[in-house]
Fold this sequence. Notes:
This protein is of the alpha/beta class and 432 residues long. It has helices at 36-42, 79-88, 107-118, 142-147, 163-176, 199-204, 212-228, 240-255, 267-271, 275-280, 293-305, 320-323, 340-349, 356-370, and strands at residues 2-11, 16-25, 28-33, 48-51, 56-59, 61-66, 91-96, 123-126, 153-154, 180-182, 232-234, 261-265, 310-311, 386-396, 413-423, 426-430.
Amino acid sequence: MMLIENGMVIDPANGIKKQASILIKEGKIAKIIENQQELDALQINSCDRINALGCIVAPGLVDVHVHFRDPGFTHKEDIETGAKAALRGGFTSVVLMANTNPVVDNAETLTYVLEKGKKTDLKVYTCATVTKGMSGKELTDMELLFAKGAVGFTDDGKPILDTMILEQALKKAAALKVPVSLHEENPAYIQNNGVNAGTAAEYFKIAGSPREAEISMIERDLQIALETGAILNIQHISTKEGVALVREAKRKAAELGFNNIHAEATPHHFSLTQDAVLAYGTLAKMNPPLREEADRQAVIEGLKDGTIDMIATDHAPHSEEEKARSITEAPSGIVGLETALALGITNLVDTGYLSIEILIERMSTAPARLYKLSAGTLSEGAPADLVIFNMGASWTVETFLSKSSNSPFVGQTLKGMVKYTIVDGKVVYTNL
């Protein structure tokens, strides 16, 4: 039994924001206790106690876009080290992407990932691929993979260019009532991925990646989702036009009686612009690329008004050697699990764009809801998965529990420090 005392309890799923204590029994939320009289009446004699004075107590964070590189690329990250990084960041559940080696397009690899995840303190879920080998040519056995434990489908890292294949996939997903998450970059427009076709590309004397690559794919895929009723998640949105398309599609879906259109934004897309590539080089190279200030502001506005439901890190570890290559040869992506909450507090809450309640909703409640996970809430009887953090505490990004450290945020001072991460009533990370 555990009692978390004196914290500011925030639970967007139940509209709770109040000073309270939380009683945990047998790994579940037993009760939210509002005052000392109620606490005394419970006659709690002996239990583990955490004094959360000055801290926020919230549902554990949920990241639905994570690369742990396992199997196949474990020099970058593996499930064990990825789990440690997630727990340090206040995440209690993650959904892995399927672009491993081999890719998660078969029951054997799917089972390997899920079983290895169970050996960690983190709740590890995974998507399977939409197409075999992520080739975009032939669908996987989506029914089988869903039955074996895949919580969604994605060819993340590659767009699905064949419209007929995508239509078939979304029809199957609609029947299964399972989300499909899409990487929206049409390679026909792109000469050099990872850098915006603008001032950053001009600086490096490359063509870069124009916004049309994203816009064209988002437009096509939203239309198919509206026609099929499939649950569609637009991944790591980066353009103001893409945000506007999602907003309009959500309006149309509501008219049809659907709630099937979703979108995610990364901390780097709401925190940085293409100017970061000039400052940090390959450490700020990612797909889709960092774009202009107007795009960053559109992403923030989308998070404010709910057009963008979720914040997801796209945690993409790479080795130091790989990121030391030239701007055209280095892989795209940055690590994000250990800095996501602090970036949200620093760049969204402290700036007045979002309330802390909305930030938690975007980082916990909404992601859990999309993938139908038992997470994102402090309801009585729910798993006792919590994060306790000091919103005002500052810290400097220096070291990582991830195997990799490819981040443009190294050296920056951020606000918002995770003090405890608790999974099923067990303290699995502390920073005291």
